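hey
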């Protein structure tokens, strides 16, 4: 009952934030213009509302939901409250794929950057899935993910170093900062398929996460196909993260923050926080994108910058509370 109530509250918040994202922005729309947009979607105000803002806020919500869900799955799988989608190196792999595509001049092809990011993320996720199938210890997966993240970061730095022109360098840097600006319904649709697959794998792995919360020995004696469920969790989180990065660039802290915001309301059961975490992630990222648009600056703040500004202190708070519990 508490989970249902929380989901309804989060769904209401999401609708409110989506409505705010539609109505607010650099171009102010009067009540008369909004009425005109609703009456005639092909009018000027209608173009602003339904062709520019609507796909942007929808993409932000979709990406936020994917990051929130993958963060909840990884925290349950690794039994670590500081785990987030970037910890396993999938986000870094997707960023490397996008950086390579831009530096090779593929940005002129529609969808090429997103495809390169998704393919690179899937390759990183495949490596992690193989590791998860081979080793059941979460520490091994974390260490491998840290190594993969460091390696992809180093190669991305090489891309920066050998960038053929300042313009290309600026494009790579801007993409890595994260943004859902200028997204259209085609971008939203491209992200929807992989994210649905990733969400399905995470839902399938939920019962395994419950057993893992009771300890490795209990999970091993449960009779469940734990290796398969663990592999599905890694694959699902990797696909979700890769598709999110392909759609919006690298956006940090949402996958870390969303599960923590809902855990106190529904308890620490890994399966109970999956849906609330997805809704909370959608609310957080849609609100962050709106904040980046309406904060009065000469240039619009990048989405990754906004989430880092708010997520950094939250990460420090979580780490401080975890350190106190370890000492106590």
């Amino acid at each position: 009952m508490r989970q249902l109530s929380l989901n309804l509250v989060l769904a209401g918040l999401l609708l409110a934030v989506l409505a705010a994202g539609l109505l607010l922005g650099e171009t102010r729309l009067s009540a008369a213009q909004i009425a005109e947009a609703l009456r005639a979607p092909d009018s000027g105000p209608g173009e602003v509302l339904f062709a520019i803002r609507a796909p942007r806020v929808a993409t932000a919500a979709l990406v936020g939901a994917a990051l929130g869900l993958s963060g909840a799955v990884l925290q349950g799988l690794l039994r670590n409250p500081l785990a987030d989608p970037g910890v396993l190196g999938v986000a870094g792999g997707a960023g490397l794929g996008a950086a390579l595509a831009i530096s090779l001049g593929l940005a002129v092809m529609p969808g090429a950057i997103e495809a390169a990011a998704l393919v690179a993320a899937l390759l990183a996720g495949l490596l992690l899935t193989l590791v998860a199938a081979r080793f059941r210890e979460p520490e091994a997966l974390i260490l491998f993910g840290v190594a993969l993240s460091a390696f992809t970061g180093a190669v991305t730095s090489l891309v920066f170093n050998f960038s053929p022109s300042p313009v290309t360098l600026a494009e790579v840097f801007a993409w890595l900062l994260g943004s859902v600006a200028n997204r259209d319904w085609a971008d939203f649709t491209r992200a929807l398929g992989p994210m649905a697959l990733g969400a399905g794998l995470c839902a399938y792995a939920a019962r395994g996460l419950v057993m893992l919360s009771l300890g490795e020995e209990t999970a091993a004696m449960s009779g469940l196909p734990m290796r398969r469920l663990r592999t599905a969790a890694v694959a699902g989180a990797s696909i979700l993260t890769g598709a999110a990065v392909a759609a919006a660039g690298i956006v940090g802290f949402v996958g870390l923050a969303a599960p923590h915001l809902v855990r106190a309301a529904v308890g620490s059961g890994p399966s109970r926080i999956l849906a609330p975490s997805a809704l909370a992630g959608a609310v957080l990222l849609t609100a962050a994108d709106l904040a980046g648009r309406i904060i009065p600056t000469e240039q619009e703040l990048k989405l990754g910058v906004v989430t880092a500004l708010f997520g950094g202190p939250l990460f420090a708070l979580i780490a401080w509370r975890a350190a106190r519990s370890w000492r106590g």
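Residues 44-78 form the longest helix (35 residues). Residues 2-22+30-322 form a domain with the ABC transporter involved in vitamin B12 uptake, BtuC fold (CATH 1.10.3470.10).
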